[in-house]
Design brief:
55% of the residues lie in helices and 13% in strands. By secondary structure, the protein is α+β, with helices and mostly antiparallel strands. The longest helix has 23 residues, at 52-74.
Length: 75
């Protein structure tokens, strides 16, 4: 009989999004309100949720853009 492995995706709320980004929760909400943050998967009574891997990818991209921008400013 084949072994079945159920993979449950890791999800994250605003607090986890802030931690991943290195921000506070207010900044996450500000970026979200501006349309500058990934759309959440859904909104629950307890708040909005994302796939953690989506936030990690966004964070890596965002921080890389910031680093390139700082390098351009000093060049």
């Amino acid at each position: 009989e084949p072994l079945m492995v159920e993979v449950v995706p890791q999800i994250a709320g605003v607090a986890e999004a802030a931690e991943i980004m290195g921000w506070d929760k207010r900044r996450v909400i500000t970026y979200l309100d501006r349309g500058s943050f990934p759309e959440p998967l859904t909104a629950l009574a307890s708040g909005r949720i994302w796939l953690r891997e989506d936030l990690e990818a966004f964070s890596a991209e965002w921080h890389a853009r910031r680093a390139r921008s700082r390098e351009a400013d000093t060049a």
